[in-house]
């Protein structure tokens, strides 16, 4: 009894000899892979045909990988948009004008990133957003004049101190004269710094009372949540 695909056999074998993959032939004719495998076992390919088959297989593999990357990136972007939407929804439920909420957020930030060993309230970061939040918060909560803030920089060996001072002064809207000390990391001598890295800017507001208040608030809050 002849197979229902018998009339397609010569065509399938012909494509195989031309270097087409089994997957391509399967999709073109709708022939079961097991049937194709049986037919192709008897097909003797020349070295040139084998080379072409391998080349087509590699091309198909590259195309499949590109398609997979596009799909992955698309899925990732969708997850990012979902996260953004969820974050904005949570933010809508928070009264950002409430000073207690603002101080709590600042306290948690300070517990994680602020200095606990100095007599000043000190916060350093390479992220301008974090430092802007710090300055805006102490101004709104404690009526602190940010023009009195003292600034320092921690830079890599190949960075220009004056250039970085101007960058941070403009970014944070702090007087250039407020930048006093610059410390260079000697361990980075000989290695190139990425253009987007502007070093670490350290802000000192000269008030240990704020530091104490923030740390107590953050620790008391954490302990309350743990209970």
Task: Please identify the structural class as seen in this structure.
Answer: alpha+beta
Radius of gyration: 32 Å
Residue windows where pLDDT falls under 50 for at least 5 positions:
none
Q: What number of structural domains do the residues give?
A: 2
- The rounded distance between the terminal residues' Cα atoms is 78 Å
Relative helix content: 55-70%
What's the multimeric state? single chain
Measured by DSSP, the beta-strand proportion falls in 5-15%
Count of individual beta strands: 4
- State the strand order across the main sheet: 1-4-2-3
Strand and helix order: HHHHHEHEHEEH
Nearest-integer average pLDDT: 88
Number of helices: 8
Morphology? elongated
Please give the largest β-sheet: 4 strands, mixed
Which short descriptors sum up this protein?
227 residues; 2 domains; alpha+beta
Give structural notes.
The structure is a single chain. This protein is of the alpha+beta class and 227 residues long. The protein folds into two domains: 1-93, no CATH class; 99-226, no CATH class. It contains eight helices and four strands; from the N terminus they run αααααβαβαββα. It has helices at residues 9-17, 22-29, 33-40, 47-92, 99-113, 128-142, 161-172, 208-226, and strands spanning 122-125, 150-156, 179-185, 200-204. A four-stranded mixed sheet has the order 1-4-2-3, with helices on one face. Strand 2 (150-156), helix 7 (161-172) and strand 3 (179-185) form a beta-alpha-beta unit. Helix 5 (99-113) crosses helix 8 (208-226). The mean pLDDT is 88.
């Amino acid at each position: 009894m002849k197979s229902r695909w018998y009339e397609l056999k010569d065509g399938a074998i012909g494509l195989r000899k031309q270097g087409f993959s089994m997957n391509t032939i399967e999709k073109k004719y709708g022939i079961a892979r097991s049937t194709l495998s049986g037919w192709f076992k008897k097909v003797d390919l020349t070295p040139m045909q084998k080379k072409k088959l391998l080349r087509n297989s590699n091309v198909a593999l590259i195309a499949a990988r590109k398609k997979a990357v596009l799909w992955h990136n698309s899925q990732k972007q969708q997850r990012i948009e979902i996260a953004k939407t969820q974050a904005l929804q949570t933010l809508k439920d928070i009264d950002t004008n409430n000073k207690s909420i603002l101080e709590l957020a600042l306290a948690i930030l300070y517990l994680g990133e602020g200095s606990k060993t100095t007599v000043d309230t000190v916060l350093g970061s390479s992220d301008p957003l974090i430092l802007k939040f710090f300055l805006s918060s102490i101004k709104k909560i404690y009526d602190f004049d940010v023009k009195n803030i003292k600034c320092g920089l921690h830079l890599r060996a190949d960075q220009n101190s004056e250039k970085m001072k101007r960058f941070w002064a403009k970014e944070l809207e702090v007087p250039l004269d407020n930048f006093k000390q610059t410390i260079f990391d000697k361990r980075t001598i000989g290695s190139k710094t990425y253009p987007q890295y502007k070093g670490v800017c350290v802000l000192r507001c000269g008030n240990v009372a704020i530091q104490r208040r923030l740390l107590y608030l953050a620790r008391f809050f954490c302990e309350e949540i743990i209970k």
